[in-house]
Here is the input.
Amino acid sequence: MLSRPIIEARAIHKSFGPLKVLDGVDLVVAERELVFIIGPSGSGKSTLLRCLNRLEEPTSGHIVVDGIDVLAHRTDINALRRRIGMVFQSFNLYPHMTALGNVALALRRVVGLRRRDAEERARSALARVGLADKADAYPAQLSGGQQQRVAIARAVALEPRVMLFDEPTSALDPELVGSVLRVMRQLREGGMTMVVVSHEMEFARAAADRVLFMDGGRVIEQGPPDCLFGAPKSDRLRAFLRSLERH
Amino acid sequence: MELFVSSFLNVEVVWAARALLLQGFANTMLLIAIAVPLGLAGGLLLALLSLTPVRIARLLLAVWVDLFRALPPLVLLVFVYGGLPFAGLELGPLGSVAVAFLLNSSAYYAEILRAGIDSVPRGQWEAARSSGLSALDTLGWVVLPQAVRNVLPDLVSNTLEVVKLTSIASVVAMPELLYQARQAQSVTYNASPLVAAALIYLLLLWPLVRLLSRLEHRLPSRM
Ligand SMILES: Nc1ncnc2c1ncn2[C@@H]1O[C@H](COP(=O)(O)OP(=O)(O)OP(=O)(O)O)[C@@H](O)[C@H]1O
Ligand SMILES: [Mg+2]
Here is the structure.
């Protein structure tokens, strides 16, 4: 079942000044795999994701994505980032552009499509997330769930090899979470490789191949969702799962 | 009353001085067309340079900007016009005005644009860069449009000041509107050309002032 890895991150260390945020993390993700990352606040989940596309420069370590050395200086980082979609907790749509403009920008400036081709592809990406009728709406005119789906369309339109999600639903009102998870599930069914930082446990159970539990900048435990949630080995994971139930 | 009209609102005198005033108006427009773009371009350059992660460079830029905001523009202009020739640098009236305005206005525009760029959330950079956009494209397509919109009232207000300030070019014998009006006044022994010049300034600046107050009302508080 496991094919060749799309992401191969080894011994990632990252410090902000004296603060050690990642302390030797390994993350290997196979093609079509959906890996879930959970862990308490400040455990380094976002930092790990951001190292994978070099939004954050690891202090040391080795990262290969789709066969390309992410950290090598000769690597064309912009060409590589196009292959790594990223979705943020706070959507980060460009407020001065319509939904269509948001999706089309990188298609024009990074892929180099002409305006008409870029817009055509942007429209079909918006249609895939169920927002064909919102192409001309500005972000401020969209609900949080719709904004996040535009953000997903913006990343997916570039046809990335892997998608990174950093708490894609935690800024949403509960009734809007479902629409975003539905789109993520669709992506998953389409064979997209995904790394998801999230605390949507039901989604993890239903869709994840593997769950990683991070604490203190390390991967403490990992395995299929049933094992991890059903029979946590470490005290820290048990304590963390209990703390989630309380909410 | 008649004396007032004949010495301040004398249409015949103004008509007789029309050539001088017209030339002054043309030169003032020329100054505006030089000073505003130079100031904006210089300010943008300074604002972009101050994005550098190199701390010492940021510090030097901040000192530069402070210096030229603290220096009275008239002092700066007189120095560039009258002082630099002692260093063998003779710029002439127009050149001196251009250099002085570049140094002065760009410092103000830089501060405004830097504040505008700072007002754009970091997530905007991150979203753009993570989609593969270059730093330059991110600036041009994502950050600057939002930055400019967030500080548009300040930009217009500063432009208003720059336009007003072009009248200091008269002290280096640059024949702009105020200078020409004073020439006409001394030739005709009548203050009406000065009044005419003031009216022309008003007509020129009124639309900007209106625009400014509309902007300030349209954008009472931004994110
Ligand atoms: N740019 C930065 N400069 C300094 N410290 C940072 C920076 N980014 C993150 N940190 C610190 O690194 C630690 C890990 O942050 P990170 O955002 O990776 O955690 P997280 O697991 O994603 O937490 P959360 O669940 O709250 O999002 C935190 O203590 C955070 O304060
Ligand atoms: Mg985080």
Q: What stands out?
A: Residues 2-218 of chain B form a domain with the MetI-like fold fold (CATH 1.10.3720.10). Chain B is about 80% helix and 0% strand. The CA atoms of residues 79 and 115 of chain B lie 30 Å apart. Residues A 16, 19, 21, 39, 41-47 surround adenosine-5'-triphosphate (ligand 1) (CB under 6 Å).
